[in-house]
Amino acid sequence: MEKWRNFAVSLNSNIFRSNAVIHGKLLHNGPDTVEELLERHVVKKEKSYNSDEDEISADQCLTSTRREALSLYRDVIRATRFFSWPNDRGVLWRDILRENARKEFETARFEKDYKIITRLLIGGRDSVQTALDKLVEKHKQQMAQGHAGVDRR
């Protein structure tokens, strides 16, 4: 029994030491000097690469922006669930918003300029967030009016 206890203690101490080393490395992955900090966070001049490397980096940027665009589109679809009332013509706002979002994404589908794509993605995220914030605010106002109507009775 004593033999197993010693084995367990040595095993735990080895695991602790290895975890301490891992955590030590994770805790100090930051820059050691101010120069290193500035080097990491200051925008550098673009280096000229050969056409193959440029093409690979452009493909990587497009892949990441496609992923972002898909994520944004899914967020739009999720956000439009809450717009369940009809407009003057009897069409649900949810359907109108989804149709407009689809048109926007289709028109920007073949855009190649990374800066324009990024600007569109940021604007789209802001629009979704603004619409949801306004929806929440309106819902809070209606809840307050509902509670005020109940209190008057």
TrEMBL record:
<dbReference type="InterPro" id="IPR045298">
    <property type="entry name" value="Complex1_LYR_LYRM7"/>
</dbReference>
<protein>
    <recommendedName>
        <fullName>Complex 1 LYR protein domain-containing protein</fullName>
    </recommendedName>
</protein>
<dbReference type="GO" id="GO:0034551">
    <property type="term" value="P:mitochondrial respiratory chain complex III assembly"/>
</dbReference>
<dbReference type="Pfam" id="PF05347">
    <property type="entry name" value="Complex1_LYR"/>
</dbReference>
<dbReference type="InterPro" id="IPR008011">
    <property type="entry name" value="Complex1_LYR_dom"/>
</dbReference>
<feature type="domain" description="Complex 1 LYR protein">
    <location>
        <begin position="67"/>
        <end position="127"/>
    </location>
</feature>
<dbReference type="GO" id="GO:0005739">
    <property type="term" value="C:mitochondrion"/>
</dbReference>
